Inverse folding.
């Protein structure tokens, strides 16, 4: 089955919901094994535990990660949870009413993991959409929609991804996530700054979130594990973010604010290095990822996803291994990660090689030894890469030159830098800043509003759309497609259409 065939049978993503009722709810209650029905915690919540929503992510061709985290009272210091394990039942079905259950099981939400759950159902069919849900006590979660990837090498006619980053909670509303949930898209690549770690002031400092009031202990800067847990909690309470997570699987990586602004993991010492242990643990607890639980201040998050015969997606860690940005020998990715990327170029023989990263390999107008080596490796192999990037809070679309800033050097591929979801507020940004980017002839487009980029890949070409929202400072902002782009396969360089 091609990706385009499998997508069409479900139409648009599911709307926001709370509980299933009637026959659908009854089917899950009846399906629970007897041992689960008598386990400790069933029926004892006294409230709704799925206040932080559900999510899926890190799919492959036969499995996908299902995530939730129990929090009866998310703004309480203990999240309303006792320090014990709670049984959680999960189901995957072919249909939204769960009349055709594919697989199910029971796991436990553990206090040492902040009552988060990561389930990986195995043996799913490739290139398929599924529905999933959880039950804890007598309560049902929302229904989520997720998908497996086409098997490596399988003929794939179309695959669509969105890449997004930088969602500072206090600087705006997550209206863009509302629009993501409505998109006909197969995968969301989240490229970092899921949270911002700094101190949050009184409610006037997060005015777009009124009338919400955070308790004092949740407004403190993130310095240790519990601070980071609080930060993810009120971020994940956002209904538009929950809706997007429930509609499509995410593949997440981090940038700097998941730990501290502009941190460089390989050279940090003192408190900022110590903070990384709590930051990595909280990130793992709150992401729908199959990555292993971190150990201390180390966690490998760079990884590779083959998508049929069409795509190879390489996810990079832009922060943890950095020592110097312009060293001729030491990579800003870390030498091990850079070697992994270069050695794996076109590993699966896919039509398109996509590199997704939290931050650029080098500044737009400046030379970068790391970028030169990596771009040169793609050029030597005759592979035309597409770089999907976050961090900048601007949409910037540019030709990837073999040697920046030599505008006459060959075009290796294309880079799409996505603007932020909310960070820096409404936009449209300074006209002077925009014009400075456009002075570089390899920069083709600049946009300072908030939003994301959607990219559709086919065997013959890649079409991207910059989607903006008019404002994030108040509810109800209209969204619109601001610009379309096209890359012909085998012909380097981006066209505005």
């Amino acid at each position: 089955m091609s990706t385009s065939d499998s997508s069409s049978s479900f139409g648009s993503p599911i709307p926001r919901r709370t509980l299933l009722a009637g026959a659908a709810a009854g089917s899950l209650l009846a399906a629970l094994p007897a041992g689960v029905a008598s386990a400790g915690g069933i029926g004892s919540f006294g409230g709704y535990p799925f206040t932080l929503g559900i999510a899926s992510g890190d799919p492959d061709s036969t499995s996908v990660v299902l995530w939730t985290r129990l929090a009866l009272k998310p703004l309480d210091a203990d999240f309303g949870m006792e320090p014990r394990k709670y049984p959680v039942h999960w189901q995957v079905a072919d249909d939204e009413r769960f009349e055709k259950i594919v697989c199910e099981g029971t796991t436990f939400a553990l206090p040492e993991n902040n009552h988060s759950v990561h389930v990986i159902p195995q043996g799913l069919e490739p290139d398929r959409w599924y529905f999933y849900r959880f039950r804890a006590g007598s309560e049902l979660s929302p229904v989520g929609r997720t998908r497996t990837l086409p098997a490596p090498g399988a003929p794939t006619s179309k695959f669509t991804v969105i890449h997004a980053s930088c969602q500072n909670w206090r600087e705006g509303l997550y209206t863009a996530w509302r629009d993501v949930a409505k998109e006909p898209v197969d995968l969301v690549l989240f490229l970092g700054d899921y949270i911002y770690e700094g101190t949050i002031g009184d409610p006037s400092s997060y005015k777009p979130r009124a009338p919400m009031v955070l308790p004092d202990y949740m407004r403190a800067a993130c310095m240790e594990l519990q601070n980071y847990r609080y930060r993810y909690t009120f971020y994940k309470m956002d209904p538009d973010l929950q809706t997007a997570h429930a509609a499509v699987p995410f593949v997440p990586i981090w940038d700097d604010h998941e730990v501290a602004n502009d941190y460089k993991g390989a050279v940090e010492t003192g408190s900022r290095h110590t903070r990384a242990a709590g930051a990595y643990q909280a990130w793992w607890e709150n992401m729908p990822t199959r990555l292993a639980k971190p150990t201390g201040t180390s966690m490998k998050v760079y990884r590779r996803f083959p998508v049929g015969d069409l795509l190879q997606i390489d996810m990079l860690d832009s922060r943890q291994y950095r020592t110097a940005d312009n060293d001729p020998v030491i990579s800003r990715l870390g030498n091990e990660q850079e070697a992994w990327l270069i050695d794996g170029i076109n590993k699966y023989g896919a039509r398109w090689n996509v590199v997704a990263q939290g931050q650029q390999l080098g500044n737009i107008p400046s030379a970068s030894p790391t970028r030169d080596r990596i771009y040169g490796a793609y050029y030597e192999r005759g592979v035309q890469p597409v770089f999907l990037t976050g961090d900048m809070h601007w949409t910037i679309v540019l030709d990837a030159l073999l040697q920046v800033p030599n505008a006459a050097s060959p075009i290796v591929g294309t880079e799409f830098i996505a603007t932020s979801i909310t960070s820096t507020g409404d936009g449209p940004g300074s006209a002077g800043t925009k014009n400075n980017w456009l002075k570089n002839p390899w920069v083709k487009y600049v946009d300072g509003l908030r939003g994301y980029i959607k990219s559709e890949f086919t065997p013959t070409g890649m079409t991207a759309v910059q989607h903006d929202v008019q404002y994030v400072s108040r509810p109800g902002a209209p969204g619109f497609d601001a610009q379309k782009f096209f890359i012909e396969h085998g012909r380097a360089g981006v066209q505005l259409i």
User: Anything to note?
Assistant: The mean pLDDT is 91.
